[in-house]
Amino acid sequence: MDRVKMADVAREAGVSAMTVSRVINGKGYVSDETRRRVLRVIERLGYRPSGIARGLATRRTGTIGLVVPDVANPFFADVARGVEESAYAEGYNVFLCNTDEDPQRELAALGSLEERQVDGLILCSSRLTEDELHKVVARHTSFVLVNRRLVGARTHSVLLDDEAAGRLATQHLLRIGRRAVGLVAGPETSHSGQLRAKGYRAALAADGLPYYPEWVRPCAPTASGGRQATLELLSNHPELTGLVCYNDLVAVGALQAAKDRGCQVPADLAIVGHDDIPLAALVTPALTTCRMPRYELGTRAVGLLLEQLDSSAEPSAEIVLSPELVVRASAPGPPETEP
Amino acid sequence: MDRVKMADVAREAGVSAMTVSRVINGKGYVSDETRRRVLRVIERLGYRPSGIARGLATRRTGTIGLVVPDVANPFFADVARGVEESAYAEGYNVFLCNTDEDPQRELAALGSLEERQVDGLILCSSRLTEDELHKVVARHTSFVLVNRRLVGARTHSVLLDDEAAGRLATQHLLRIGRRAVGLVAGPETSHSGQLRAKGYRAALAADGLPYYPEWVRPCAPTASGGRQATLELLSNHPELTGLVCYNDLVAVGALQAAKDRGCQVPADLAIVGHDDIPLAALVTPALTTCRMPRYELGTRAVGLLLEQLDSSAEPSAEIVLSPELVVRASAPGPPETEP
DNA sequence: TATAATCCTGTTAGCGCTAACGGAAACGTA
DNA sequence: TACGTTTCCGTTAGCGCTAACAGGATTATA
Question: ipTM score here?
Answer without folding.
Answer: 0.87
